[in-house]
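User: Could you check the structure of this?
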Amino acid sequence: MAERAFIVATLISCGVPARDSADVAQAVVLGAWQAIEAGRYRPDPAANARQMLRRWLRGVAWRHAVHYLESAYVRHEVLHHEPLGPLRHAVGLNLEAQLQARAEMEALLALWQMPLWAREVLALAALGHEGTEIASVLHLHRGTAVSRLRRARKLLARMRKRKGRR
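Assistant: Sure, the predicted C-alpha cells are below.
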C-alpha cells in the first residue's frame, strides 16, 4: 500500500481515466498480492528492493490498464441521455436502414440454411424468372419448377417465422 500513489500515477500515464484509477489500482494491488502468494514475484536479492518492487508493479499496473482499456464496457461506454443521438448527426445514422439491413441479413441467413433445390428456384424467381424459365434453366418440367418454387417460399416463410420467435 506504500506504493499506491505510484500505482495510480502509472495507471493514469497508461490512459486509465482518473475517475476509474482507484478501482483499477485496487485490482492491481489484489493481483500483485495474489502473484506474491503464488511465488511469481522473485526479486534479485542483490538489487535495490524498492526499485525492483516498483519495476514489477509498473508491469502489473500496465497489464491491468491494458485489460481495463480493452474491456467492452470501457470501449463502448456512452454517457448521453440518448445514446445514438450524437452519432445520428455525426455519421447520418439511419435506424430504419439498419433495421432493413438486419432483416435482409436474416433472410439471407435463412436462405443459406435451405436445401440447394430451394435456393436455386428462389434465386431464379428473385431475378425475375417465371415458372417456365425456371424450368428450362434447371431442366425440369414446368409443373415441377412451379411446385418447387411454392414449397421453397413456404419453407422460407416458416424459417423466418421460427427465427422471429427466438
